[in-house]
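Please check this record.
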Amino acid sequence: MDNKCCSRRVVVTGMGMVTPLGLNTEESWANCVAGVSGIGPITQFDASAFATTIAGEVKGFDPLNWLSKKEVRRFDRFIHMAVAAASMAVEDSGLKITEELGPQVGVVMGVGMGGLSSIAHHHKILIRAGPRRMNPFFIPMVIANMAPGQISIMHGAKGPNTSVVTACAAGTHGIGEAFKLIQRGAATAMITGGVESVVNDLAIGGFCAMRALSTRNDEPEKASRPFDIDRDGFVLAEGSGVLILEELDFALARGANIMAEVVGYGLTGDAFHIAAPAPEGEGMARCMQMCLDDAGVKPGDVDYINAHGTSTDLNDLNETLAVKTVFGEHAYKMAISATKSMIGHVLGGAGGVEACFTILSIRDN
C-alpha cells in the first residue's frame, strides 16, 4: 500500500437521523437546540412491573415510508431505522450510486444488540404455539449484519460491508472503520453510523437487574443527567444516525456539500472489567490520545467534545478524569456536552447519532 492511499482525506457529505427528538435530522437537531427532552414513559410494552418505566422512544416512526409491507414484516425495528437514516443520508449527500460506482461504495453499521426485540417476541410465540408457528424470516430478522446488508441492497453499495458489534462504542467504531477503509483506498465512499432499537421487556429487565438504569420515573425529562451529582443511571433509547463519508477529491469533483472532515480515529481496550471502566479513565485517555495522534491534532486545538456522558456514576467520573489527563489545563477551556441528556442512550446507535449532533454543532456554531 503506498503512502498516498494511506493519507487520503475523508469528508462528510450527508447525514440522516431517526431519534427520540425527531423523525429526521433537522427535526432532531431543532428539538435538541431548543432543550426538548425525548424521554418519557415507555409505551411499547407494559413496564409497570419494572423499576424503570421510562425510555427514549422514537414516536410516530412509520417504516412504510422506507420499506414495502413485505419488507417491514421481514425485518426487526432496528433494521427499519437503519434503512431510514441511511436513505436520508444518501439523499442528503446527493450521491448517485451507479452500477459503475457501486463496488466503490461500502456500508459499515454499528449495532449493539441487534434484533433483541424480535428474539423476545418470537421466543414467546415458540413457547405458546410451538415451532411450527415460527416466522421463516426470524433468523435474518435479528442478525446484526442485516442492517448494513439491507442498506447495501437498497442502494446498490457493493463495496466493503460489515457490522461492528462493540456495545455502546459500535456506532463510533463503525464510522472510524469506514473512515479507515476510505483512507487506505479500499473504498471511495461509505454509508456508516449506528443503530439500536431494544426498548422491550427483556432489555429493560436485564439493565434493571444490573442496576444500570435511572429510576427517576416521575421526572423522565430530567432522568438522563450526565455529570450531575444526583445522576442515578442511564436512560435506554432507540434510534439511528448515519453519515456519508467520501474521499475528498471525489467529493470535490462531483460538487458535493462538504459538512466536516474526519481526521483521526482511536480505539482501545481497558482489559479491566466486563462493565466498569478502568480506574481514572486510563483506557479512555489512551483512546483519545490515539485519535489525536492519528489526526496530528494538538490537545489545544480541540474546541468541543461530545462526551459519552451516560449519566452513570462510573462512566461520568472516569470520563472526566480521562479528559483532564489528555487535555490538561485546556480541559477547562473547551466546550463539553453530552447529548444523551436529551435523548438517552441509544447503545450501539449512540456514536452515529452523536456524530451527527457534533457535525451540526460545527455547522451552526
